[in-house]
Structure formats: C-alpha cells, structure tokens
Write a structure and sequence with these properties.
Helices cover about 45% and strands about 15% of the residues. The protein has helices at about 15-25, 30-40, 45-55, 65-75, 75-100, 135-145, 150-160, 180-190, 265-275, 290-300, 310-325, 335-350, and strands at about 1-10, 30, 110, 130-135, 170-175, 210, 220-225, 230-235, 240-245, 250, 255-260, 260-265.
Length: about 350
C-alpha cells in the first residue's frame, strides 16, 4: 500500500485538500488528531512521559494533563525534543498499523502532517509528497478567521515551519475557490503516481525539458511554486526551486539556424539520431572537425555564419543527456498541461 504525504504550513489548506481526497474514497490519516488520541489509547505513553520529565502528568481521572505537558515543553527545545522522541515513534508505528489495515480500500493512503519535512523519522513512510501552498496574506486571513489569532501570532507560527518545495513530488497552490482546489486535487491524482522517469516507454515532452543559465545539464519541469517553478535534474533526479530571476528556456523553444530558416531542436535531434545510426554520439569535448562533420551529415544546410561550434557542443550535450535519461520518442501535440508548463517556465524566465 503506497502512501501520499500531504503537508503544508498553517493556513495553506492541507486539511481541506485531505478532506477532498477522503471524499474520493481515499483513506486519510490525520497525524495531529491521531497523536491526541494516542495519549488516551496507548497505556504506555503517559508513564513514559512522566518518567522522562520526572513529574506527574495525569489529572484525577487518569487522563493526560495536557496543560501541564504544554507548560513543560513550551519554549524549551530540549524538552520538546524529548517529547517528540517518545511520541513520534508511537505515531509512526500507529500509522503503519493503520495503513496495513486499509488494503481493501484503495491503491494508496494519505498521511497528513504539518511537520513531515522537518522530521526525518517519518521520511521513509512517503512514496510521494504533496506540498500545499498559498500566499502568505491569504494564509493569515484564513487562520485569523478560523482561530482568532493576530497577524503577528500567525507570522510567529509560520516562521517555525520551513517547507522545501523542491523536495516535494507535487506542489498544489490553494489560492482560489473550493471548486478550483477540487480540480487541482484531481489533476494531482492523475499525475502524481505517473512520475517514473526510468520508464523507457514514456514520451519526451520537450516543452517540459528546461535549460537554466549558469547550471549544467537539463531539467524537467515538475510543478509551479509560489515564486517560480520546481524542476528536476534529468541526470541526478535532484530537485531545485527556480525563482523569477532564473533564466529558463524550454528545448521546445530553441532552434538552430539553417539556410532555409530556423529548425526546431526536436527535428535536429531526430536528424542526429538518423545520421548516427548505430554509432555512439560524440561529446562536447570532441574536436570541432568531428562535430562539424556530424552536423553537416545530419543538417547539411545549417548556417555556418550563425550556428557555431559552441552551439554544436551545447546541442550534442543535450542530445546525449536525452539519449541516456529520456527518449527520442517526442510528444507531438501540445496539451493544456504542456502549455501550462511552458507558461510557468516563461514566467520564471521573464518575470
């Protein structure tokens, strides 16, 4: 049974997202609510806490004195770490037991947690991670209406939460109506499990393959983030956040000059593949004569006055990276999804 972790900061709407997932029949484990339940249902938990802190933490009826516990850990990082060291393994075991009981209910379950990214203990649970985001002012407005907190209190809580969009498999921006959020949830459900880059049968969408100025290699568009986009390096699968100042281009938008006009990279790659046949492609470190000979064979009408050896080196590097980590079976028609990726890349490049 696979696990989708849903995380996000205060006011982002991750609980609303989980509610929408639950309405679609997907089992959801609310780690915050379940932790509170464990204080009452796990008979070993309160004694362990009392032994750790050296004081009584029970009310007259034997239940946990939550105020006394909160007073012990509030503002004390050492005590908070001690508490988490006792409670979090219990939550981990409880989730695993719960997840294993859901086999007949669907292809995956959801683990809802605001602290997932900050707690490495929970990282092995995730098969995919969905980060829910929203603009800061909108999050503050939601929390103020829900909890009655001041803007300063909300900012203080937000500062304690750090979320790395690049480490998520998908980012869902919750900045509109409930209907829009529901549509975005459905989009995530359609795509988040189809992220196997090692599948040689997958088509390559050049409108999602990116070059980034100042960075080596190619990247693939993953998702839109609050201030730019999330991209994944083709070779290492390492994710990075590209902000509005990053100079990003898609391979679909790059052409080379020929005597008859511009030729799209897709057609250049296919021409190179045909010209090479069973031979291995040269590298960018090959001699200029070798590169010129290959391009003369593949694209005999390339414009020598505007398409230089330095350009050939870039193209051959891209060709070799696609050959190793993607395929030359290219997507032919643009879809709404690819247009969105191009728009996101253009925003990151030109904002």
């Amino acid at each position: 049974m696979k696990t989708l972790v849903v995380t996000g900061g205060i006011g982002s709407g991750k609980s609303t997202v989980c509610g929408l997932l639950a309405s679609r029949g997907i089992p959801v484990y609310d780690s915050d609510a379940r932790t509170k339940d464990l204080y009452d249902s796990d008979p070993s938990l309160i004694p362990a806490l009392e032994a750790a802190f050296g004081l009584a933490l029970r009310r007259e009826d034997g239940s946990l004195d939550r105020k006394a516990l909160a007073a012990k850990v509030f503002g004390n990082e050492r005590n908070l770490s001690l508490l988490e060291g006792i409670v979090h393994p219990k939550v981990y075991a409880d989730f695993v037991s719960w997840r294993d009981s859901q086999d007949e209910r669907g292809p995956f379950v959801v683990f809802e947690s605001a602290i997932f990214q900050q707690k490495p203990l929970f990282h092995p649970l995730a098969d995919r991670v969905l980060l829910v985001e929203a603009p800061e002012d909108l999050r503050a407005e939601r929390v103020s209406a829900r909890d009655g907190l001041s803007r300063e209190e909300i900012r203080q809580r937000s500062r304690l939460q750090a979320f790395e969009a690049a480490s998520a498999d998908a980012v869902l921006v919750n900045d509109g109506s409930l209907d829009l959020l529901a549509a975005r949830v459905d989009e995530v459900l359609q795509t988040i499990w189809n992220n196997n880059k090692n599948n040689s049968n997958m088509k390559t969408d050049l409108s999602k393959i990116l070059t980034v100025a100042g960075q080596h290699g190619l990247f693939e568009y993953v998702a839109q983030a609050r201030n730019g986009i999330i991209a994944e390096a083709l070779s290492t699968k390492k994710r990075t956040a590209l902000d509005a100042h990053s100079r990003v281009n898609t391979l679909a938008d790059i052409s080379i000059y020929t005597s008859e006009g511009e030729l799209k990279l897709k057609d250049v790659f296919l021409a190179l593949k045909e010209a090479l046949g069973e031979e291995q492609a040269p590298t960018s470190k090959s001699s200029p004569d070798v590169l010129k000979a290959l391009f003369a064979k593949a694209v005999p009408n390339y414009d020598e006055d505007r398409f230089y050896v330095s350009h050939m080196k870039k193209v051959i590097d891209w060709y070799n990276e696609l050959a190793q980590y993607a395929s030359f079976d290219f997507v032919e028609e643009e879809t709404e999804e690819t247009e969105e990726a191009e728009a996101a890349a253009e925003d990151a490049a030109n904002a």
